[in-house]
Queue: 4 jobs
Job 1
Amino acid sequence: MTGAIPRRERHGTEITGRVRDETGGPVPASAVTLVDADGRQAGRTAAGEDGAFALHAPARGTYVLIASAPGHQPEAATVNVTDTPVRIEVALRGTGGLHGVIRSSETGVPIMGAAVTVTDPRGEVAGSRLSGPGGDYALPGLPAGTYTLAVNAPGYRPTALAVTTGATVSSRQDVELADGAVIHGTVRLPEGSRPAVTVTLLDTGGNVVRTAAAGEDGRYAFHDLDPGTYTVVAASWSPSRRQVRVTDGVRNRHDVRLS
């Protein structure tokens, strides 16, 4: 009966270590690959939740250990293998990205559900998100460069601005949205009548800007209007027509009485 095969011959030399980020924290599930001097794969594994990994080099020699993970730049390190177990620490740098908070410019209140879109210099969409409950958004993994950041939300004026992202650190860009001008009010009808009422908004040239149907209680509203002078026309029986001037970020009340 032959003797037991020595562990080193059976498995090769053990290489252990840990994959961490720039802060020293673990990078779970990182892919760890070992290649020999000819570029052939000699071993492969995945780091655990604590960033630790272990694999074996089949023989003595010089190897390259490659670690990679989503949201990080890959890293390579030279490993000289003899008969002694090797331990190595690998630090991965984060890739660039963009994050921030969307708020109202008037009240400072965070805006949830704002559409955040980033386009590259060619106009291609590089990423998009909806802001969270705290108005926060994050677009990780953007390559370093200059982008256009566009944000819009119901009831607010959309905005766009140029932003620059770095290669290793996520850039912060908070955005404030101005409240759009609003015309709202109530159409008052003769007692006992509830016909359908259409409310139309005209610009100074007489062009139709918006049209809305008044609710059962007679209320209507036009949101996100450009500054200027408008004419409100409510039609059901005999039409009512009156000019209303609005300024940016102001809610203007205009009630209408139909005879």
Job 2
Amino acid sequence: MAEKQNGLKRGASSFSLVGKVAKFNKFTFQIDEKSKKSDWIYNSLNLGINCGEECGVIYGKAMGGYGKDRKNLVYVHGKDENGYDDFDNRFDIAWEDRDNKDILMTIGKNCFYKAGLKKDVNDNLVIEEFLSSYDFINYIKENLEEGMIVNVKGNLKYSFNNDDNVVVNKEIKAIYLSNKKPEEYDAKFTQTVLFDKDCLDVKKYDKDKGCLLIDGYVADYLKDYKGVDVKQTYPFKVNFEYKIDNSDNEKYLKLIRLLFKVKEGVTAITFVGRFIEGGTIVTATYDDLDDDIKQMVDMGIYELDEALDKCSVSSNRERRMMLIKPDIKMIINEDGTKTPKLQIDRKKYEESDLEFILPKATNKKQDTEMKVVDPKLDDEEAADLEKLLKELGD
């Protein structure tokens, strides 16, 4: 078990892939796969989307199933009196009731997987909703075709592989037909990134990529580590790139210092970014797992999808997460008007919140030679930052 609880909360972490469905292979759909040592039956999806020349083919995944000889539950949350998701009202329903229309009416919209792969007589998308990814994958298998233009949406989830490298999984929650043209294909994400005073090194600029290389932390739930329960929000250290022109050295230094330098504590910034990937990935199946790992799955120490993910093999696959610009959110004022606000929160956490001792291993932020001091942004500096970001553009 982890040594202490921290104050971290999971921030924004989502993606949208727009492009052409890549050619199917034997790993794209696995339907009603059966565990050889338990009653587990599952569907899995490993879907490639060609998101254009710059972004490449990006893969998203989904997996879900049930135990044939056990009581299966679907965990959901309800709605408030205004019909919005009430995340505090959590309950479960029987697997057999996952299509019960009366029950579905009481469940918050964020619980559902959504697919829009058909159109009605008026050329409008027909949206189907599913409580289980098992049913969601079945529907996609029956209706998706190679070469379709789609928009795939979902959540980013962070974990460790067998070599303790951080893995970013794109877990699909929705898929819709799209009318986008090839020049409009894209692979975007929105991610809250945490920065401490040691994250920025102004010299780490890659001229070939036109990016500042910067490490940040992403807070995400960690169920276990090497078979030992953690069950806490963990600060995963992630390598990012920030797209910026450094030909004007004065402007370059001013912008990145206003944006990334931290005086004390931990700064949280929600970015809009872009995936740039290439290469291929081979996804493991239950049969590919060695006997020890199979036994851990069958005993419930690992969920099957976690084990498969950790044992999947990737070739020389480029995986870049490029930060483009801070996100802007419209804030509703007391008088009902709206004000745009950069999603930058100075001193969101304490530095100690990024220190985390894992079972059988220690993972603390490491000291670097660079020690930076940054005054907290006053109104004038904040205005300078917004002006520079506007000049930078998309």
Job 3
Amino acid sequence: MADSVIKIHLADDHQVLIDGLLAVLKLDPRFQVVGFSLDGVGLLDRIKENEADILIMDINMPETDGIEVLRTFRKEGFPCRVIILSSYEDVKLIREVIKLGADGFLAKNCAGEEISDAIENVYAGKQYFSESIRQRILGSFSGTPINEDRKYASIAEGLESITDRELEILKLIGQEYSGQEISDQLGISKNTVETHRKNLIKKLKVKNSIGLVKMALKYNLIN
């Protein structure tokens, strides 16, 4: 992560939660809260003005909710990264916000350390989920608790273990790039591309690249 201060904008319809986040984030010199909003109206303009790097936002806000904010971000290609902080942990909602471009999802009862970890990871280009959120996502792959279904537990573990580089390659496979084209695009050898492809096949329990794409689409790894 860069040495520069990470600029953060907060959005929640409860002032008490805003105040709590401000108190936590002020303790870390890496972070600077540059603004906050109590609803989604005008949120994009405010973030453009203060040039926030990360938006920490509730889903349930008056007038313009978090879903609409994410849709606007996606439509306009806005570069600010988004961490959802919500008391709702419904898997369908979590998948929806991820699909719309959210980079992280935290339960509102998470600890201050977890908020700091989420900011650091998301700023570095990674996704971050609270442990409770991660378990809900993994458990949803089978529709039953993970420990009740070995096959789907294995797939869930494979999905969780996919690296950033493997995800890059998976996306390019989904766009029908050849091994050589992926090699040229990422500046790595064709043999390295093939090694990553084989690792993906093993992790996702499929037989070939077609199976990889099907699995990636099923679990929203690619659009």
Job 4
Amino acid sequence: MAYWLFKTEPDTFSIGDLKEAPQQSTFWEGIRNYQARNFLRDQVKVGDQVFIYHSSCKTPAIVGVAIVTHAAEADPYQFDMSSDYYDAKATLKSPRWVGVTIQYQRHLKPITLAAIKANNDITELALKKANRLSIMPVSEREWDLLIAHG
């Protein structure tokens, strides 16, 4: 099992939205960064644990935990011309973008970005280094530290 952090803008899709979704599950679509796509395609597996992180909001924070329930598959929005995630270069035969399905596990007491940056025991998390990736790995040690905090 591996550990991940998935960023989302709460005005678009929040931990509450995930909890209220049918079967408390959703397909994590719209990833349009190659490094994040490669994580989803090549490394994120069923059973992996995911921090849900609210970004681009007043208080960015880790707010909950989800689990990956379905491995990477083609993101259907890349083929939808009416979608913000449409990609004219993507084809059914050769999709460019993928997503995974995640399921809500629980809310956490918010672990703010400020608290993460102030924690000297957190050294590997790309989020601490102002990384803008929407999907990033979390080491098991740092996962445990953050879970204990939240």
